[in-house]
Amino acid sequence: MAGMFDNSVVLEVQQATDIVDVIGEHVSLKKKGREMVGLCPFHDDHRPSMNVNPVKQIFKCFSCGAGGDVFKFIQMRENLTFPQAVERLAERANIRLQKTEYRRQNTGGQGPEQPEEVDPNRLAKANAWAAKYFQKTLEDVEIGKLARDYVAERKISAESVKKWQIGLASSAPDGLINAAKAQKAPLKLLEQAGLIVGQVQDLSDHRLADKFVNRLMFTITDVTGRVIGFGGRTLDENGAKYINSPTTVLFDKSNCLYGLEQARHEIVATGTAVVVEGYTDCIMAHQFGCCNVVATLGTSLTAGHGRMLRRYAKKVVLVFDSDVAGMEAANRALDVCLAQRLDIKLASVPQGKDPCDFLLAAGKEGFERVVNGAADVFQFKWDRLTEKFGKEDTLAGKRAAVEEYLDTIATGLQAGKIAEIDLGLRVNQISRIIGLDSRQINAELNRRLGRAARAAGYARGQATRGNLAVQAIDYGQGLAAAAQREMLEVLLNEPALYDSVRGKISAGAFDVPVLAQVAAILFEALDAGADVSLNQILARVESVELGNCITGLAQAGHEKGNFESRLAGAMETIARYQAQKQDSKLGAVENESDFLRSKHKNAGGQNRHIVGMVE
Ligand SMILES: [Zn+2]
Which fold has domain 264-373? Predict the structure, then answer.
């Protein structure tokens, strides 16, 4: 069942991998009884719905139904096929897979029959290779000198250069291409990673060029440490100050935070994530020992960022530049975080400095003072309102300022971030400043809430539709289907009880399609060996949907308990059902003989068509 890999290899990888570690890299997990719980990354989760069972090595979301073993998690989370997930986790566990066990697709070739499908694992490897190349270039005594001077001028330490895998794209327009050709690195993959521009036709093609030229290279990793992209800062002020890798299957800057890999543990430990805007701001914060800091990649905070942060942190502090652009970016980010029910605060570094310069001037204590003194969202918005209200001469301008404030209050109410009592105070405040009756303000707020509720309902509908494959498992109708389900629920929990089933009921007795699939896998495994854990069963299953289904059955069975009597009941029902089916088949045969008899009787007779119509 395990496709291109031998089942023993799959099990070896599974045994060398702890599901709690793997999921813990993506979601902050808390102990709850014997299980771990966290926010489910597969639906828009607001309370921890995902349970991870360290003993059984499975996960299950009670909200959207996603579940399975560690392979299913990685398949879903990183959009990988089953073999790709095995490969990924094997690599993580330092298990060397034999090439014969997994015949790679020829994505390195240059033929026109080249499959367009991009393998994320291979793309990450190509990126990692490039990251090494950029680092070597920075270390090069001659070529890297100017860039090293710049790094030193920015006070980035040698340890930071190493920790953050900072490198250099040299001023040669084809430095990376030549290195790739020399080391036989696949150009096609580098093109797919967005590191080479132009169509890769053949190795001697001269129309190719490096995407990053004469830039200091910041290596962007995902939370598990895979190299997913790059940010390049110009060293000769040619072109944009910063450019990033293009969007690929691995990299989407609106869903990616720089430094999350390095900051994750400290964010979970402190419950707080500090968000800055630039690579160097983030690096400098860590260099000064503020290790719960991440950076957006030249975008303001998106809903995707909010969702990512919510899995690790309760509170987010945005540190922004105190110029107009910084204020505007912070203002946009506020509503995003509020809607994600994140506790959000705002801080700005004084005197128009960026956080990097400020850290160099004021040190760790200074930066922590700024973070700790961060302002409440509503206070920030209120200050903005009063300031604007004072400055705006036109009625339309004043009105826009009030509307903006009301929008924030409505979002806060929607997210449950404003208590009733605070609301009264705020309405009075607004009423005083704009001279509008508080009832009118409440009516305005209600109108916004209605709109927000409709939008949320729509979003929920969308999310539900997205998870339809997870939820819409058809377990069949009626007693017989329920008994089939029951039997699997029991056997997945108590495989030893299979002894009483063996020889009496076979997988062929299951006629609900999904249950028949599970029974086939389970019975085959049980017939082959004695004790089969849920995890070993899951490792035989490639499909994510079937993994969800098996985990769901096991979980439901576990909760109901009472295994022996339930199995006995299920067996009885299934046996009776089989007998009935047998009977009706026999009945059909009998009818057929009747028919033949009557046909025979009427053979000499009158109207054959009447006989035919009896059928
Ligand atoms: Zn879920």
Answer: Dna Topoisomerase Vi A Subunit; Chain: A, domain 2 (3.40.1360)
- Ligand 1 centroid to Cα of residue 60, in Å, is 8
pLDDT in tens, 460-513: 444 443 333 344 677 777 788 889 999 999 999 888 898 889 888 888 889 888
Backbone phi, psi, residue 70, to 5°: -65, -30
When the candidates are 3.90.580.10, 3.30.70.330, 3.30.200.20, 3.90.226.10, the CATH number that belongs to 7-101 is: 3.90.580.10
If you measure from the C-alpha of residue 43 to the centroid of ligand 1, how many angstroms do you get, rounded to a whole number? 5
Decide if pLDDT at 199 tops 70.
Answer: no
Distance from residue 52's CA to the centre of ligand 1 (Å) = 12
Q: How many whole angstroms from 63 Cα to the centroid of ligand 1?
A: 5
Q: Find the 69 Cα to ligand 1 centroid distance in Å.
A: 15
**Helix locations, 55-157, DSSP H:** 70-78, 82-92, 120-139, 145-153
Q: How far is the CA of 42 from the centre of ligand 1 (A)?
A: 5
| CA atoms lying within 13 Å on the CB side of residue 80 | 23
Tell me the whole-structure pTM to 2 decimals: 0.69
**C-alpha 73 – ligand 1 centre gap (Å):** 11
Q: What is the 3-state secondary structure (H, E, C) of 538-581?
A: HHCCCCHHHHHHHHHHHHHHHHHCCHHHHHHHHHHHHHHHHHHH
pLDDT digits (tens, 9 = 90+) for 46-96: 889 999 999 889 999 988 888 999 999 999 888 788 888 998 899 888 888
Distance 470 CA to ligand 1 centre (A): 9
